[in-house]
Design a protein that fits this description.
It is built from 1 helix and 26 strands. A hairpin with a 2-residue loop joins strand 18 and strand 19. The protein is globular and about 55 Å long.
């Protein structure tokens, strides 16, 4: 029996399995920044406010001056945002804020409802500003759909990275060879170790072999091969920009050919509940989606306490997190 269940091309967003809802990979080679923290380049020819076409190696997304995603609502799930290169400015309706990047991770539970913005400030005015990031949506079970929103920063310096001579594994969630990740959000599906939720960013050197350890329970597992040349798994040669659904009950040997290989792995016990989705809302029924839309129209999930929907922080702010209780952590 093959340990590979299927191989599929990576689109935008990436295909996921329960308990994950969505995963998107952003790789933008932004140029030098201007005084407004946007690109020091012409924006002509771009559909500002909805620019998802890769032009000159980068996109503006929903941003009109600074690339990114101005204020928008969420309900019923969690966002886990991993920024490997570049920076993300977070602001939300709880009054929480932060600038994170260069390996930091933000974990946000939308729960009963929150607005937030995610902008990508181009801080350097004399060198390019590359951005590499993942955003993962992790579902909440029905019992947790209406928990209080929660925001936390997992700083790069604190996240376990397990290294060997030819590989490194960044353990964002779950346990890797007895090395536990930082605590997830308290109401997360990942907070119960029995659910064996794992998010690992794996880097393997060329001309080496890496073994992906088996899971302890019956979970879904998807390996995303997003950068490299070729790998061989279970006798099958696979090229980059492919996802691989594998049998998590067996350890899997991966031979890396050509260039170094980079993977994201998502794993977890399925929630196995009905899913109703409409844009930024994920509930269990269409009636709950209608309720979410009505409540957002009436309450704006607490309103927007920032001067602009596309709020960015001061250029010299550095990496920081401001929590809803007013506590500020500066890195």
């Amino acid at each position: 029996m093959s340990t590979i269940k299927s191989v599929f091309p990576l689109g935008f967003p990436w295909q996921t399995q329960d308990p994950f809802l969505f995963c998107v990979y952003h790789l933008d080679h932004y140029p030098e920044g201007n005084e407004e923290l946007g690109p020091k380049a012409s924006l002509e020819g771009r559909t500002l406010g909805n620019n998802f076409t890769l032009k000159d190696g980068w996109r503006m997304y929903h941003g009109k001056t600074v690339p990114g995603f101005p204020a928008h609502p969420h309900r019923g799930f969690e966002t886990i945002t991993i920024v490997n290169k570049g920076y993300c400015d977070h602001s939300d309706s709880l009054g929480a804020a932060g600038r994170f990047g260069m390996g930091d991770v933000q974990w946000m539970t939308a729960g009963r409802g929150v607005q937030h913005s995610e902008m990508f400030p181009l801080l350097s005015t004399d060198t390019p500003n590359p951005l590499e990031m993942f955003q993962i949506w992790l579902n909440l079970p029905q019992k947790s759909k209406f928990v209080a929103p929660y925001f936390a920063m997992l700083w790069h310096e604190d996240i376990p990275i397990i290294k060997t001579e030819s590989s490194s594994v960044k353990v964002i969630a779950g346990t890797y060879n007895e090395h536990a990740a930082l605590d997830p959000a308290p109401n997360s599906w990942a907070a119960d170790s029995a659910n064996e939720v794992a998010i690992w960013n794996i880097h393997v050197e060329a001309s080496s072999t890496y073994t992906l350890p088996k899971a302890k329970s019956d979970v879904t597992r998807t390996l995303y091969f997003y950068e490299g040349d070729r790998i061989v798994m279970d006798g099958q040669t696979i090229t980059p920009n492919h996802g691989i659904i594998v049998d998590a009950s067996e350890a899997i040997e991966i031979k890396v050919l050509g260039k170094n290989a980079h993977f994201l792995m998502l794993q977890g016990k399925p929630i196995k509940e009905p899913i109703a989705k409409y844009g930024p809302f994920v509930m269990n029924s269409d009636e709950e989606i209608q309720q979410a839309m009505q409540e957002y129209q009436l309450t704006q999930f607490g309103g927007w306490p920032w001067p602009q929907a596309a709020h960015v922080h001061d250029k010299n702010k550095g990496r920081f997190a401001k929590y809803p209780d007013g506590n500020i952590v500066q890195k």
